[in-house]
Amino acid sequence: MPDAIERYEALRTTADAEYAAWRNPLRPRIDVAIDQSSISNGALKTRAALERVAAERNAAVDFGRVHGYGMQWVHPSVQVTFPDGATVLYGPVREADAAAIVDEATGRWGAAATLRLGTITGKREGVPSIRQHPFFALEPERRLLRNLGLTDPESLNHYLARDGYRASARIFGRHVSEEVVRNTLNDAGLTGRGGANFPAGTKWGFLFGAPGEEHYLVCNADEGDPGAWVNRVVMEGDPHLLLEGMLIGAYGTKSKAGFIYLRDEYPLAIARMEAAIRDAEAAGILGDDIFGTGMPFHLRVIRGAGAYVCGDETGLLASISDERGMPRVKPPFPAARGALNKPSNVNNVETFANVPLIAAHGSEWYREMGTKAQSGTKIFSFSGDIVRTGFMEVPFGASLAKILEACGGIEGGRALHAIQPGGPLGSLVPASALPKLTLEPASFTPYDAMLGGGGIVFASDRNSVLVLAEMFAQFVEEESCGRCTTCHGGNQRKTEIIRRVMDGNGRRDDEPNLMMIDRTIQFSNCAHGQLSPKSMRNVLQHFHAEYEAAMRGEDATLSLKGATRFRVAQPRDARVEEAVAICPVGAFHGSPGARSIDEAECIHCQACTDVAPGAVVREAKPAAPRMVPIG
Amino acid sequence: MVQITLNGQTVEASAGRRLVEVIKEQGVAITNLCYIDGLDPYAGCRTCIVDVVGARPTPLQLACVTQVADGMVVNTETAEVKRTRQSVMSLILANHPDRCLTCHRRVHCMPGDICLRDDVVTHRCLTCSKNYRCELQTSCEIVDQGDFEEPWVGEPRSYYETPPPEPDRGNPFLEYDPQMCILCTRCVRACDDLRHTGAVTLSGKGHRTMIAFGTGGSIHESDCNFCGACIDVCPTATLMEKPNKWVGRADDWTNSACNSCAVGCTISYGVADDRPVIVRPDRLNPFSRDQICVRGRFGYVAVAERERLTRSLVRAGQRLLPATFDQALTTAVDALTAVKSAHGADAIAVLGSPLATNEEAYLLARLARAIGTPHVDFSHGMVHRAVADAMRAAFSTDRVPATLTDLEQAQTVVVAALDVEDSHQVVSVRLKDAVIKRKAQVVIVSPKWTALDRWAAAIVRVAPGQEAAALQGLADGGSAPAGVDAAAWARALNVVSRGKGASAAVVYAPNGADGAARAGAAATAAANLAIALRGAEAGSAFHYLPTDANVLGIADMGIAPGAGGKSFPEIIEAAQRGEVKALVIHADNPLLNAPGRTAIEAALQGLQALVVIDSLRSTTAEYATAVLAAAPFFATDGTITNADRRVLHQRSAQRARGQQSDGVAILAALANRLGDREAPSGFTEAHEALAAATGYPTMAQVDGAPAQVRALVATSTTAKPQPAPAPTPAHSGLTLATGRSLYTSWDAASIHSDDADKLHREEAVWLNPRDAEAAGVRTGDVVDLTDGIASVRIAVKLDDGVAAGTAYVPHYYDGGALMALLPLGGAGASTAALRVRALQPA
Predict the structure, then answer these.
(1) ipTM value
(2) What pTM was computed for the model?
């Protein structure tokens, strides 16, 4: 029987040849970045335009696909790889720019000079390396993202050629024991990347020691926080990295089957993961006989049906087990009763993605990055009112102020108002904390805040934290599974109070009542309930002046929907028509010259006051009659 | 056992038990609105918070999730516990009409009073059907919710942003008002985990979370079988019995037993204003425990009170006219005496009823002796005796020691019954329990789909009449009987062969309409199978489930032909010949129960005297010379003997109305006037007499250990396999399968009420789609089901739950109209080919 490593080397031979041909193509190749974010920004249209232009001109170019490099404010992006192996990144490439790109690729160097962002690899006269771009100032090295831009994410061979699966072949060839695999993870200091930060190797040990043969390894890919797309980048950009992580996990936990619970809102990630599983099975890397060792591991993608609470590990396990997607009562814990009521272990996508790297390079290499308390790197996605939206992989402990710099600061030169890490169950941290914040969990603790799963949203001073808190309150209320009266009842009441305060009808006892709800919701079964009051608590802790202003019915700078309204002050101003055109909800009524705004439809986005300041104004609403409680 | 300290008291409890159960057992009041004893905690209401000293991360822990451990110190009444419970409760109340729950005046208010707090009438507890029997109300009292300032009163509710869901009042049994719901989901778990029906679900999320039936439609269209387990656990007025919903607050409770099948579930009647208004399961019967079925829960209201006889009737020409009891008694006695003096006692026959009590049956037997006739039987007597004969042959006794509670331990169970879910539902529930909790293997031998099929390891779908062949085949490991699917047969054989040993059992439930020959053959084969499975211990593994409640009891009391006596079909034939000229019928309706309806009608018509003792003016009573008005079953004291031979005390839950008399008193009076001067006229005396005569336990024994005392159980059995029963020849045309349906009330069917099946769910003939296609009919078509002579008009339901060649009709359809298609000897004796005749569209 050939050794697992021999099998691997056999796979490598073809993979290397294919990858070399891809890296150094005979004629230039245009790779359009195809990922969910690029598609949303028109990447498919761009690709169609490029192909059309190339066909019309009978241009000597090929087409391929990559994943976006992380600079999502310049999507759709395109890479051109020249026969000498140099790869140049361009963006944003709209349909109209197709000709320029094709020209540049086919020899008219300079045709798309204005679109150039930098070289990803190789050298080109006058083009800086992309690594010198200020956005990547805090990325010393790409580890989890090392294949982005350098491989076709849908190719197993590319992953293999970049040394992928080497570590797992070594492990499955029984050159490493299960215990050593787990201990290496703990030595490296790998903790759960979903936000809970539990040591991964220890967690695997629970499942390894669980009774019975039927163990399930589950990947939580139900990334539901608005502003977080860390897992999506891994699954769309390097699906085999996740597969290899799970494969090693299967070895370390004695699991013969596993599930990837993937939210249905990630169609491309589902397609790429399913294709990757098929390819890996065909190559003998997954399935009944991994690397010829006779060890089985079967993986299946389960599509989530849109319930936010299925991102909780027991909610996810209930959903996989054909039950209503509700977090379960613990104990029993997943290692005793998980998927299909069998011992299971759930890890986040990014947690698994770290595993092959640690297995290949060892724990010391891993600890080179990060801080003492939290080693390694982590992918973060940054969004909100910043100039440069995108994702990057930074070592734990990076300064958040520098991150904001790398992101180009706040849009329109405005001031930062609040930092929102961790989604709707996360926190609202005041701008004043920025200098002290670093990207590691402990740094957020003094602000009663959590770092969360990797999504960080910057809010400018155009935003009211109350509006954010109301949005989150409504979201967590609607997503409550309905088990705990504290959670579904408490969040309804909380949302009502916040709405009333925003409508200028706040009462003196609202604050103590919010605090009481907060205390009571702590008696909920899962993190969804327990964390749900956090954002409003943060408002009362860190933004109390704003809350008081709302209570007084005053609106200094903030868009309180109940307390203020937008009004056309100068209907004859020509800019009003610009405002009408830009209004996303069509709240303007009447004919040109006699426009008015329907208050019920207006969402207070301020687009109109941006394009027509003075002509459209925001003003305080006439005071609503105060309700006097009876009884 | 471990020791914990509960509010300063040392308490013993077994390790690992849920703290909330231990607290409740100690009599400490604790709010727990979502917990169901014995099931895994749902931990949804969060109201059972207690202080567990030293617990982390906080000492405030849920008593339902916490398991007791040695040395645990628990306080349930600290100020913090109370305040926290109040704040949780306030969030529950915020979505429930609540002002009365926290009002200090609630004890003073009367319906119709003007609310000083101006609460809306429809939101008052006083106008709620659950008032004073509401767990939410009690819970508010436990935590002194009135002391807690409820901050949410009068707020606009996001809950009401969506229109309030409509209540479902569209069925005769169960009302569902989602506005009252606090989402404790006890109903969901009762339906799933206690009943395995799964008709109730939790739907939606956030403020749109609500309880739904099936996929969210009406209850009537869901899988709900109206057992009411959800009503039992509902802490609010969300799920309520429709009958007596507004008067269901009982003044008193009467322990009794259900008489709608041989399981004999113990039930409690809630009594108000001298009538039962509500039924709850009574946990005394160790097999039924907390479960009953739709018939047990709603049997007492199956027939409107005005339908019950309150005066006796006497024939005057073509009519039956009301008469005093003495007039009717005199008429009856005179008519019987006339027949006896003219034609001898041999011309009189007596028919009893398996719905009667042992005391009534005992007196009926004495009445027969007083008359001097050996012709005593009941409609299904032949079927019962055929089964008993088969059991005696195999086990040397028909009073085998097998008890249904053993079924819950059995690993392999073969169920030979048309539809055990319909006929003996609690048996079906326990079998599902066994499958789910212990992975028991169930094999079903039946001509028809049943709700138990989903849990069966193998289903042998036989043609009606081939049950014996199939059971014998399973015993012998033989080849598949004609028409049985080969793969299913192989599965069944496999289960049986693997299941041989200490924990295998056979359940056999005959149908009255089958007739003696078919029932006897099937019983012999079933006994052979039990012997194949359990060898010498087969007598402890053979569970005979008669259809009706007290078949075993009345047989013990002597309701069977005496020496030279005629059986039921012989009595009817003799009456047709004019040899039997008078009949005394107690609480039976042969026109509903017995096959051969045409012959029975002719026999009843030709009688000189027909004395009927019944609580209803049944279709048979229409032929009577005199009808003596008896009290209904829920107003009758007595004992019944269930399939386990447990003697159950059926207690009266109301006094006799009008001139109704106790069955025992009527029969005693008759016997007395006909010569038995010693006949005991009261229930207690009657029981004393029958205990002395038959060896039955005394009432002191029966009441001393309710539902535990078994009568006349054989101490030893043998196991002698009997020769395989002769194969039943197949015949052309459709073969009829019929049996007890779940929703039909015997009482209502007996008076041929249109509402005998209040749901009208099962009033159809099931035809295999192939047969339907051949006959050119579709679901909903009305057809005549005919043997060429008689016919039954009925709607068609296409259902591949019956094999091709089989037609299933519920026995009680149209007051037993189907019985006209069968000969006196039952379906087993039928040779006529049934056809479906489509009617021209009107």
Answers:
(1) 0.88
(2) 0.91
